[in-house]
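Reviewer comment 2.1 asked that we show a complete input and output for one of the modelled complexes. We chose the nicotinamide-adenine-dinucleotide case, as it is the one discussed in the main text.
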Amino acid sequence: MKLCMIGTGYVGLVSGTCFADIGNQVYCVDKDINKIKKLNSGISPIYEPGLDELIKKNFNAKRLIFTTDLKKAINASDIIFICVGTPNKKGTLKVNLSFVYKCVREILSYSKKKKIIVTKSTVPVGTGDEIEKILKKKKKLFSIISNPEFLREGEAIRDFRYPDRIVIGSNSKSEFNIMKKLYSPLISKGAKFFTTSRRGAELIKYAANAFLATKITFINELANLCEKSGIDIEDVALGIGSDSRIGSRFLRAGPAYGGSCFPKDTKGLVSAAERFKIDLSIVKSVIKSNQERVNLLTKRVHKILGNNLKNKKISILGVTFKPNTDDMRDSTSLKMIPYYCKKGAIVTYYDPSGEKEEFKKLKNCEFKKNIKDTCKDSDLIILLTEWDEFKSLDFKKLNKKKNFKVYDLRNLYNPEEMLNKKIEYFSIGRPNTN
Ligand SMILES: NC(=O)c1ccc[n+]([C@@H]2O[C@H](COP(=O)([O-])OP(=O)(O)OC[C@H]3O[C@@H](n4cnc5c(N)ncnc54)[C@H](O)[C@@H]3O)[C@@H](O)[C@H]2O)c1
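Response of the prediction step:
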């Protein structure tokens, strides 16, 4: 099939490349000329394991075309996927759909033949209906489908190839077969093909993300209780997670959830519900609790460092919101690092995905190219993201300073072992962790 992906970010680039890899001709379009230039010279603008090789393979096979020429891409394609960002409107819970609607208007102006338009971007309930209104002049030329994306950054290629389910929402049944044909290589490997109404599919994506965010927030709040009551949160997570009705995933206590999806989608769901005069009080509490957690864990450092951060050397390992991605959106580090700098600390950080623009303007903050240089002479080492290379560190070798401390927000180390090594160790929701 001939496909057009509008937006070559984490979703559009990965799914476009994977669609090409299963034999489709895919136009990946972006308005950002630098991204397209990079892609055409064989460089991926994002860090995603395995993606570079897959792009090269399909680009060389001429199944993958990178362009800024939307008109050409639309006219050459049967199915157009909208994969642009849907951030929150600044300072509100509402979703900014201007990027989506701009794409729709462009599709309207360029299309001459019948096209299927698919929203892969996460969009609130009723967005498909709004898109239909924009297209009403040439209504008969278009079918509007919702096909939300569930891939996780860092595991995106695997998630595309082996999805738990493929959700297709359409108000007309005839489109289900076309989408089924497109996804047939994945369905034949066991992916569940699930069809529903267009609004149903739109809500499924928000409901899934809000539920997962709730699970994380729930275990994080229990970790606070464990810290005060001498209980190990890991035991509690195991004890409840072994119940198949609950399940063990997303029960790892740690920092506030971040990333490009959970923070904005929980807010987007609350705001969409408000339009239908429905109060989603649980999701509202989750949003509030998560915001409080960022502050709680950031400020805990005052207690750890004896209430004085001035000239204290703080080393941070991992600044992305999770491992195996370069995505910084809504990462805890965005609050933590500027806060420590403001309080007079000297911050060094290392992340396997490289230096971050976000911290370049900070006075007391420096990126180091490896773990050793980051942790040298540190007063406090903070483990913020669980990249594999942070999981078996010899802290005493890395840091010769006496009485340095380790603050482990991912519970990567055993508190007793740290005690035996005479390292002052702080973690999340566990006894013997100070
Ligand atoms: N990132 C994830 O893990 C993930 C997972 C599932 C769903 N989603 C959803 O997918 C959507 C996209 O997310 P993302 O993380 O890929 O975003 P992104 O910001 O990485 O990429 C969006 C891209 O769209 C481009 N763009 C914007 N308007 C355009 C236009 N008019 N024409 C051409 N290109 C345009 C931008 O330049 C950018 O490259 C969002 O709705 C998000 O919620 C994201």
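The domain at 216-287 is CATH 1.10.1040.10 (N-(1-d-carboxylethyl)-l-norvaline Dehydrogenase; domain 2). We note this here for comparison with the apo prediction described in Section 3.2.
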